[in-house]
Design goal:
Blueprint lengths: L18 E7 L5 E7 L1 H10 L3 E4 L4 E4 L8 E8 L6 E7 L15 E4 L6 E4 L20 H8 L23
């Protein structure tokens, strides 16, 4: 693996050497997650055919699924028109991409208006993931604890004008 390969120079890395990455499920086109890569992560992803990201919180490479078994097999890699965003078309092993145990990290949908809108959970938890097994790390963040409470989808209302029902509120 060479992180100095010419093709890596085409990517417009940010000031700290990272590029945003969107993981999209091949076949369904569901957007599964957003993450970051550095040169080494992108080169490793190409080399092994599975998604490897850069964990900004842990400051190290993160092979998706290394703890949970929920690997992402890469089918295609694309670079956007500005050459500053990478799109991975992946097969999500076991169907779970999110550390909350959901299919996608984008399980909250905005409902309502600018004055009274709320984020509604619209995807169920498929599997409870223990800390260290793909779930939130020990000493979970407040956000992780709140998202765990929203374990089943809320009914989607057809009218944005109606008053939203009282639901778990998870700020994003």
């Amino acid at each position: 693996m060479s992180i100095s390969a010419k093709w890596l120079n085409k990517v417009k890395w940010d000031e700290v050497g990272l590029v945003p990455v969107i993981a999209q499920e091949v076949g369904t086109n569901d957007v599964l997650m957003f993450a970051w890569m550095n040169r080494e992560a992108l080169a490793k992803t190409v080399e092994i055919g599975q998604a490897v990201y850069w964990s900004r919180s842990r400051k190290k490479l993160w092979h998706k699924g290394e703890e949970s078994g929920h690997f992402q097999k890469v089918h295609e890699i694309r670079l956007d028109c500005d050459e500053d965003v990478v799109l991975l078309k992946v097969e999500q092993v076991a169907g779970i991409a999110c550390h909350t145990g959901r299919h996608s990290c984008f399980f909250q949908k905005f409902e309502g208006s600018a004055d009274n809108g709320e984020w509604q959970t619209v995807e169920p938890v498929l599997k409870d993931l223990a800390p260290g097994a793909g779930g939130a790390p020990a000493g979970k963040s407040e956000k992780a604890e709140k998202t765990e409470k929203a374990d089943k989808p809320k009914r989607v209302r057809k009218s944005a004008a109606s008053k939203p029902a009282d639901t778990d509120k998870t700020p994003s």
